[in-house]
Amino acid sequence: MASSSLLVHRVCYIALFFTLCFAADPFVNFELEYSYITASPLGVPQQVVAVNGKFPGPILNVTTNYNVVVDVKNKLDEDLLVTWSGIQMRRTSWQDGVLGTNCPIPKGGWNFTYQFQVKDQIGSFFYAPSVNMQRAAGGFGSFIVTNRNIIPIPFSPPDGDIVIIIGDWYTRSHKTLRKDLDDGKQLGMPDGVLINGKGPYRYNTTLVPDGIDHETINVDPGKTYRVRVHNVGVSTCLNFRIQNHNLLLVETEGYYTSQQNYTSVDIHVGQSYTFLVTMDQNASSDYYIVASSRFVNQTIWQKVTGVGILHYSNSKGKAAGPLPDPPNDVYDTSYALNQAMSIRQNVSASGARPNPQGSFHYGQINVTDFYLLKSVPPVSIDGKLRATFNGISFKNPVTPIRLADLYYVKGDYKLDFPTKPMNRPPKVDTSIINATYKGFIEIVLQNNDTVVQSFHMDGYSFFVVGMGFGEWTENNRGSYNRWDAISRSTTQVFPGGWTAVLVSLDNVGVWNLRAENLDRWYLGQETYMRIINPEDHSNKTEMPVPDNALYCGALASMQKYDFISCFCYTVFWFYS
Question: Which of 24, 54, 254 is nearest to 146 (CA)?
Answer without folding.
Answer: 254
